[in-house]
Each structure stands twice: as structure tokens, then as C-alpha cells.
Protein: Integral membrane protein
Amino acid sequence: MHRHRRVRLNALKPLLRAYALGYLTVTAPRLLGLLRILRRDRLASREALALLRKILVTSAQFNRFPTAAAIIIGGATALPNLVQTILLSLLSAPGRGASARLSRNLAACINFLCSFWSAWLAFTLLNRDETWVRRRAISRSVPTANASDQHTLNLQQPLPPSYHPKYAGKTIDFTAFAFCRALDVMVITVWTRTRTSPWLPEQRYPRLSNFIRKIADPSVFAGSAAVIMWSWFYSPERLPRAYNHWISKAAEIDPRLIQALRLARQGNFVYGEDTAQTPLLTGLCRELGLPDEFADPSKTIPIPCELYHCGTGKSCEVHALSRFWRSWRFAMGIYMPLQLLTLVRSPKPKSVWTILHAAARSSSFLAGFVASFYYAVCLARTRLGPWIFSYKTVTPQMWDSGLCILAGCLACGWSVLLEKPSRRQEIAFFVAPRALATILPRVYDSQYRHKEQVVFATSVAMVLTTLNSGNEQNVRGVLARILTSILKD
Structure:
């Protein structure tokens, strides 16, 4: 009797751990937001308790992330055990034999199908609430990427009275995260299984293979960062609002300069022509004590970098160092508290020097990100760019209408090399889903939701099946540690 209860309890442990972790993940940021509200506004005790109750209750609703996480983990642990027990008992019946290899293959197939089904069910559950997507759809327009994409709704266009669209897109960030992790698992699995083949670079060119392994994660981060920064400049609506706000705070750039670069790309800020955009930067010139002519694109070609330096002088190098120092101080305010929190989790005590060194190194990574972006922009538009390409080949208008920003986007992500190699992969796969989400439509017609559902369920099933098969090394980093601690009995 007690043995059956213990078995049932062990089968429920991963499910309960997943629900608890999911509830904490959803509730903690909302509680921090409540603390900020209480510090900013003087709310009555009854109002504060009402807000607290709302946060705790809504996070526990059936169609929220904690329940979906429990369903996914439960479908990957308890359900496969039940199905395998039934099938193996049938296969081992008198007169039937099953080889050990067949049992392993059957178990892997069952794990994948059960994980796929549970992820499919969780996706349906998360998308039951359409109010979130409807509010998002009303608050912004979703432009069509190209002429062939006829299904993305442009919500600024009037719709026929008889048309009542249903929107989808609530889980697009979750799907992008699962897809990027599954893609990483697939690449690592293929590399691991075929690394002993004589035709692979690891056997024929070991140095090249080692270089590829070291550069893979920084390349993923650099490419993802380039997409995100390009979107931040020219399509900020494609980024989550909080993420967009955080980048703007770290970048610390005058919005008038961003607007000028956007107008240059749109063709409304043209060198050599009077397009009535001079007042845009005139106020900035006066604040910095620079001549008003610097703000006139019809007279000054190109706008000097001194204006973009925002008071640090003419030198692009001094401006880059200034950006590095300011960003480093900003980043220390983020990473230092995080390093102090690790003291609570770490079983071994850390010295003050270790904490400071880790925080300073991570802050240098973020500071290098910001500084290299600005310096690459200056190099492209006024220093190296005109020296490599003549003004007839690549005009100042072309540089300021996108090419200089592209240079900054391509350069900034390589600052991740300042981080420890063990952290590069987690940083890379933190930003990769966000970069992918900027390419995908944030809101779309729900009749195409099944496509996202297939990608989501397949990706989740691939990751969980890999872990259940004992190949934890193929699911790298923090995700592997979290899922392994949840899945174990």
C-alpha cells in the first residue's frame, strides 16, 4: 500500500516542481512591479491587498503558464511511464518476445509522442485567452512583410463590417525560444553522433574544428544582436515593450538623432536638399554649443560626428571611451546585485574579489557592446567608410540611411567575447529567440495558428526526448540543469 503511494508520489514530483517553478517565474516579476507601484504611489492597504490577491490568483488560473508547464512535464514523465508499462507488458506476454533494442527504440518513440501531445495540449491551453492578443492587436499595426504575405492583418486598414477576425500570437516568444533550443539540440546531436567519421573536420582539421566550436556561440549572439539592434532603430514595434525600453535606457542616445536617422532612411532627411527637417537637430546644436549649420542637411554634408557625440568633443575615440565608461557604470548597477544573489544559492562561499571580478567582467561585456556600436557607426560614416569607398560609390546619404547603422549592428555583438566561454552560450540563446521573434509577425490571424503549434510541439518534444534519453550534454547550459532537476524523480 505504502509502496504504491510512494510510486504515485514520485511520478507527480516532476509535475509539481514544474508548476511551482512556472508559478514563481510568472509571479515574481509581477510582485516586483507591485513593489515599484507601492513605492511610487501611496495606495491604501485595501487597494494594495487587492492588487496582491489579483497577482496571486490570476497567475494560478488554468490557462496560464504554470499549468502549461505542468502539463508539458507531466506528459514527458508520468504519461510515457504509463504507456511504456502497458506496451511492454503486452510485448512480454507469453509467445511474444521483444529485444532490448526494440524496447529502447519503442521507449524513445513513446517519449517523443507523449511530449509532443502534452506540448500540443499546453499550447492550446495558453491560447484560450484571446484578450491579450486582442489588446496587442488594437494597440499597434502589424505591417505586411511583402506582397505575398496576405494573411498578416494590417489593423490600421478598415475591415468589412461582417469580418470579425480572431487573433493569435500570444505564444510567439515561447515558440521562438523552444525552436532555437531544439535547433541547438539537433546540431549538437548530429555533431556528436558523427564526430568520429573520417570525413568530418574534427578528424581531418582538428584546429578548424576547435575554432568552429569556440566561435559558434559568439556568432549566434552577434547575428541575433544585429537583428535586434536593427529592429530597435527602424522597427521598434517588433520588440517587446520592456525589452525596447531597456535597450533605450542602455543606449542613452538623444531621440532627435534617432529620428534623423530614421527620416534619412525614409528619404525625408536628404543631403543637399531643403526638406524642412533642419529644426529637428537645431535645438540639439544649440544645447551643445555647435553652429546651427550642423543641423542643416542642405548645407552640411554629412552631419558631423561631433553632433552625434552629444557633448564629448570631436574625437570618435574619446566618445567611444566615454560610452564604455558610462555603460560600465550602468551595467554594474545590474550585475552587482545579481552576483550578490548568487551568494544565497552557492554552496561554497565566494570572496569579495570573485564577486567584483565577475560583475566587472559582465559589465565590460555590456559596455563593450554599446561602445563598439557607436564607434562602428562613426568609423563607417566619416572615417573608414569614405576612405574605402569614394563619395561617388557610396554617398553620405547612403551611409546615414542605413549603412552606418548596419556597421554598428554587425560590430556590437562581438563584445560577447569579453564574457566567459561558459556564459556565452546562455547569452546567445537568450537573445536568439528575441531576434527570431522580430522577424515573425507578433499578431496574426488565428486560422494559421496550427503552423505555430506544430513548430512549438515538435521543438518541445525534441528537447524533452533528448533529456529523457540521457543525453543531457546535448541540451546545454542553464536550461539543461533546470529541466534535469525537474524531470528527475
Observations:
- Residues 272 and 298 are 4 Å apart (CA to CA).
- Confidence is low (pLDDT under 50) at residues 1-5, 140-164.
